[in-house]
Design a protein that fits this description.
Blueprint (H helix, E strand, L loop, with lengths): L3 H6 L7 E4 L3 E5 L9 E5 L11 H21 L4 E5 L15 E6 L20 H13 L2
Antiparallel strand pairs: 1-2, 2-3, 3-5, 4-5
This protein binds adenosine monophosphate.
Length: about 140
């Protein structure tokens, strides 16, 4: 079964589309956290960032890059939080990769992205070194 976002791509359900090209689509979030809250998706269905092929990832980022200033300017925002909930454990509900562009305003009561987990991870230097080496070895 196709995701709700694929149904938007296919025109089966309505959305407030703000940008479209061959491989990506952007539309307003149906339950906005702020005026202008926009989602950017690849038209093809990939569940997580990890699944997105490199050429599509480039297109996706290009659209995000193009949309961030447009969204901010449209709603006269002071800034924006730009983020992916990448996987269920990170709060992803729709299994079709999407980037949230959430306009932010001075004094809007929201926090930085650091607030998405309970607190800082308590890690020793040797653990940090090991993790850095492990990540580097996989790139
Ligand atoms: P996430 O928790 O990252 O998977 O976010 C999914 C987002 O999709 C939520 O912010 C929803 O409000 C939004 N959403 C769900 N259905 C629709 C829809 N039909 N049109 C626009 N946005 C939607």
């Amino acid at each position: 079964m196709s995701t709700i976002f694929s149904q938007i791509v296919d025109g089966e359900i309505p959305a407030r589309v703000v940008y479209e090209d061959e491989t990506t689509l952007a539309f307003l979030d149906a339950n906005p956290l702020a005026p202008g809250h926009t989602l950017v998706i690849p038209k093809d269905e990939y569940e997580r960032l990890n699944d997105v092929p490199e050429d599509v990832a480039e297109d996706l980022y290009a659209t995000v890059h193009h949309l961030v200033p447009a969204v901010e300017e449209a709603v006269d925002a002071d800034a924006s939080t730009v983020a992916f909930n990448n996987g269920e454990a990170a709060g992803q509900e729709v299994p079709h990769v999407h980037c949230h562009i959430v306009p932010r305003f001075e004094g809007d009561g929201g926090g930085p992205i650091h607030g998405v987990v309970g607190g800082p991870a308590d890690l020793e230097d040797d653990e940090l070194d090991e993790i850095a080496d492990d990540i580097e070895s996989r790139t």
